[in-house]
Each structure stands twice: as C-alpha cells, then as structure tokens.
Design a protein that fits this description.
heterodimer, A: six-stranded mixed beta sheet, four-stranded antiparallel beta sheet, 11 helices, 14 strands, B: mainly alpha
Chain lengths: 323, 259
C-alpha cells in the first residue's frame, strides 16, 4: 500500500477554464482531490467531464486557470505529470493489430520501464485483469469487456499515483461492469487516487468517496454521496401510477395542486419531487378523485443521486441511472 | 498475484530515454503497418508500376533506368508509412494512447520517422539488388550511393510525416493529399529524366525538391552523371530533413494543444 505524502493534494483545479471558440466547456472550476480518494465527476454528456481530464493531462491547454497533479502544473510539467498518471479513456483505444501482451509491453516502454521489469509487470497485470488466457490473442479479437480490461491494464502498467477513468463501464453489460468495478475496488486498496467520470449514478454512489456534480462546465456541488442525498431533503420522491396516462394539462394541474417541485413522467408512472411527502400524498388522492382516476401504485422513494442531480440542476436528468 | 502500485516518481525528460521511446514507437509501427495492403500498394507497387509505365519502350540501357527506379521506390516507400499510420491511429484513437504517456512530441515524431526510414531503406535496397544481380548495374561510389539512400530516406521520410499532420483523420484523404504532392514532384526530381536534361524552369523547380538531391546522389553512386555534386546534395538533404522534422514537431505540438 502506498504511503501518503505531505499535504499536497493529488489533484487540484484552480479556476480552470476551457473555451472552444464561443463554447465554454469548463467554466472556472475549482476543486481538490486528496491522495487515495476515489473522486467521482458526475454529469450528463457534454457537461465538461472529459475536457477536465484532458486539461489535467495537458492534452488540451486551459484558456485560464491551472490544473495540478501532486503540485505539478500540467502545462509546465507535462512530461512529469504524465509519468505519474494513468488514463482509461471512454473508448478502449488498444492497438487491435498486436497481441494483448504486445499492447502492455509497448505501453510500458513508453513509460521508460526496463525490459525485465516490463515482463514482470505484464505477467502480473495479465493475471490481475484475468487476461492470461488471451495473452497472445490480437487485441482486435477480444470482446468489448476484455478490451476494457486491457485498456485498464495499459493505464496502470507504470504504477501511476493517479488514475483517470473516463466512463469506465460505459457500453459494458451488467456482469462486465460489475467485474470492472470489483477490479477498481481492489486497486483502491493500494492507495492510488482515482478520478472517475461517469454519468452512472449508481456507479458513482458505489465507488466514490466524494462526488462533484458538474453541469454545463460548472461544478454545482461537491460532497460525499451520502451527504449529497441527505442535503437533498427537498428531493424526496413519490412515485405514482394511475390507470391511464396523464396529458400535459393534467400533469400541470397535479403539480399546481400540492407542494410539488417537479413531475417527471416515467414509463408507466410519474415521479413527483416534493419537500412534504405526507401532504403530497393527500394531494395525489384528491387529484385522482377529482379527475376520475384510479391509483394503481403509490411509493415514497429515498432520493437517489439522480434525484439529487435533478434538484441541483433544476432540470430533468438527461442520462440513465442503470447499474 | 496482485499488481503493486508503487509510489511513482515523476520522470524528467532525458535524451536517452526519449530515444528509447522513439524506437519503441518505431518498432510498434513496423509490427502493425509494414504488411498493411495499403502500405504495400502505395509504397511498392505504385512506384514500380508508374516507373515502368514511363520507361518501357524507351531506347535506353536497362541499367540506366535503375537510379530512377531506386529513387522513385525510396520516395514512395519512405513517404507512405507516416501518412497511413498517423491518421489511422488518430481515427482509432490509439494515437491518443501515445500522447497519454510521458513522450515528448519530438520523440513521437522521431519514432514515426524511424519506422518510415527503415521501410524506405528495405524497399530501396530491393531494386538496387535487382539491378546489380540481373541488369548489369554497378556501384561506382559506394559511399555516395549509401549517402543517397540513407540520407535520402531520412530526409524525405519527414516529408511523409509532415503531410500526415495535415488534413483529416481518414487515411484515404491523407493518402490523396500525399499523392497530389508526390506525383508532380516525381517529374521534377530527375527520376525519369536527369535534371541536367530538364528545361531551365524545371531545373529551378527541382532545387526545391529533396528527392532531386537523393536521385542525384544515387545516380552518382551508380556511375551516372550527377547535377548538384555529392557534397551539395548531402548538405541540402540534411537541411531539408532538419527543416521538415522541425515542421512536423511544430504541427504535432499544435495538435497537442487540442485547439
């Protein structure tokens, strides 16, 4: 297990801004991540998550502000920064034409790891990642899940102090996602710092020590998953199912009747966000009675991270909450 | 067995380590691209077909055709690997994988150039051997011939790498741009007609093509009349190589800014 160094944060963003022409992808964000933390960066597509990672790696230059890794400026000390970070991008960008081992060995050589050490790390990684039986197979012939594992192996071959994971389980089936999350949990125990971007609420909840919610390039909250949920008291939810679908007028009427902040139509039901569930339930019954509707189901739900996001951004979550 | 994530120590860029990374990139390119059909077609078949299309039926000694054939093969083979591999890797985002690593832009450009040079060297030696073994070519100045093939490859390979930094991420579009530049250049570089036999205006144009100097050295090395002389040709080729390499580094640095 890695020992913690002096109080220098593993990652630090200081008023970090990135503009592409008239579009501001990252808008003056500031945060710090302590060594050994799994820090989640949660937000919908286009919120600025990937751009933030690229700024930390100097793959794109900030318009203003600074990104630091263990106190090293990502622009001025680009090579030093890259030598202590690993990145798992949103796509498994492995070299399809060469074998699994050749991919790992080539990546290790880019980090200046000697031949003997390269071989030893490659063997360890093949075992850890469950890739031993595919070692001589060309990477292009691996399944999507195995390519993802290979991409993770390539990103940690140099024992990085910080690993950026950009949507690590995106596009994976449930079982592969679970395996990848299990792998990440194991790696966490070695004291590595993880910066995880995701739009998957459950993943963030399950893995992260702290979560930053980012929307339209701005950080709108940073806290532990539990505290975020607790603070979102107004994001309590009643889920109600009627015997028929409500039209837009009826939905508006329902919201105006009680202490509701928002109504979100689901597949067969409606999610009603409220700060007072008891009064809200009474209003639902009253609405059903006056509109000659039958209530087929009624549940009160603990706020999920998705609900927190809806409350924080005051808009409907535009991303899934699949596990 | 578990992977131990040791405390990583930030690396400082060093010349030797950067050179080793360049070689790693070059070896990876050799494994992946040398046998791609597009490389073999544009790098070998294309120049051979063009050469014979323009020379068959001419009433000249077969050995007199070989300096041009060697120069054309060198030109096409050494400028094919970079313009194919770079857009291919950008398209598949594997190029990004190299940018994630602590590799300087110059080491990356050098790696791409080394893989192109080695391919060009191998391909240029094939017509040379064919000429010597079967068509009566003879080496009259081995050093000059070596300089022509080696410096020629090293210099012109950078042209291919530079072209690969322009335009789209689609290999076919970059190859199109490459051929738009290569095809007129081959007529102005003494490949089919020696430079001293070209009209005055074409001779002036030939000064601006690095291929002219490589062809001139190869002609001299194989005992044919040269135009610039070995010293000037070698120095100009080196100058072209350095300028083209710097241009590649500047272009790739601009990419790295991601703007």
């Amino acid at each position: 297990m890695r020992e913690k160094e002096s109080g220098t944060p593993a990652l630090e963003a200081l008023n970090l801004t990135k503009r592409f022409g008239s579009v501001t992808a990252v808008d003056g964000i500031s945060f710090s991540v302590e060594e050994g933390e799994i820090f989640g960066f949660l937000g919908p597509n286009g919120a600025g998550k990937t751009t933030t990672i690229r700024l930390f790696l100097n793959l794109t230059r900030p318009s203003s502000g600074e990104a630091r890794v263990f106190g090293l400026d990502s622009v001025r000390n680009s090579i030093e920064v890259k030598s202590i970070v690993g990145i798992v991008p949103d796509v498994s960008n492995v070299f399809s034409e060469i074998s699994t081992t050749a991919n790992i060995l080539f990546t290790a050589s880019l980090y200046g790891i000697g031949r003997k050490e390269r071989m030893s790390r490659m063997q360890d990684l093949l075992e850890t990642m469950g890739l031993s039986e595919y070692s001589e197979k060309k990477a292009g012939q691996l399944s999507y899940g195995l390519k993802r594992r290979l991409a993770i192996a390539m990103s940690i071959v140099h024992s990085p102090r910080v690993v950026f994971l950009d949507e690590p389980t995106s596009g994976l089936d449930v079982s592969s996602s679970r395996e990848i999350r299990e792998l990440l949990r194991n790696l966490k125990y070695h004291g590595t710092t993880f910066f995880l971007t995701t739009h998957n609420m459950e993943e963030a909840n399950e893995l992260c020590n702290r979560i930053a919610v980012i929307d339209r390039g701005r950080i709108i909250a940073v806290d532990t998953p539990e505290r975020l949920r607790r603070e979102a008291t107004e994001a309590q939810v009643i889920q109600v199912e009627f015997n028929r679908v409500l039209d837009e007028n009826e939905q508006r009427q329902l919201v105006s009747l009680g202490p509701f902040h928002k109504i979100v139509p689901m597949k067969d039901s409606y999610k009603l966000f409220t700060g007072d569930p008891e009064e809200a339930i009474e209003c639902v019954f009253h609405f059903a009675f006056s509109n000659d509707l039958r209530i087929c189901g009624l549940n009160t739900l603990k706020p999920t991270l998705e609900d927190v996001f809806v409350k924080l951004t005051d808009r409907e979550a535009s991303f899934g909450s699949h596990a | 067995m578990e992977v131990t994530l040791d405390a990583g120590v930030p690396q400082k860029p060093g010349v030797l380590s950067e050179l080793m990374k360049s070689f790693s990139i070059a070896i990876k390119d050799m494994k992946i691209y040398y046998f791609k059909p597009a490389i073999l077609i544009f790098g070998i078949l294309f120049p051979v077909a063009i050469f014979f299309a323009f020379t068959v039926g001419r009433n000249v000694d077969a050995s007199a055709l070989f300096p041009g054939l060697i120069a054309l093969t060198l030109f096409f083979s050494t400028t094919t690997v970079g313009p194919f591999s770079m857009p291919w890797e950008r398209l598949n985002r594997t190029f990004e994988r190299i940018l994630f690593a602590p590799v300087s832009v110059s080491a990356l450009a050098l790696g791409k150039t080394i893989s192109a040079v080695v391919f060009g060297l191998i391909m240029s030696v094939v017509p040379l051997l064919l000429g010597i073994l079967f068509f009566g070519s003879r080496v009259s100045n081995a050093w000059v011939l070596f300089l022509g093939i080696f410096i020629g490859n090293a210099s012109i390979a950078n042209m291919g790498t530079l072209i690969s930094t322009f335009g789209s991420k689609q290999p076919q579009n970059v190859m199109l741009l490459l051929n738009l530049i290569r095809l007129p250049m081959m007529f102005m570089s003494g490949i089919f007609v020696p430079i001293f036999e070209l009209p005055h205006w074409a001779r002036i144009v030939s000064w601006f093509s690095p291929v002219s100097y490589a062809t001139d050295l190869i002609r001299c090395g194989l005992g044919f009349k040269d135009y610039f002389g070995p010293l000037i040709s070698s120095l100009v080729l080196i100058a072209f190589g350095v300028l083209l390499f710097l241009a590649c580094v500047l272009r790739m640095t601009a990419w790295n800014r991601g703007d």
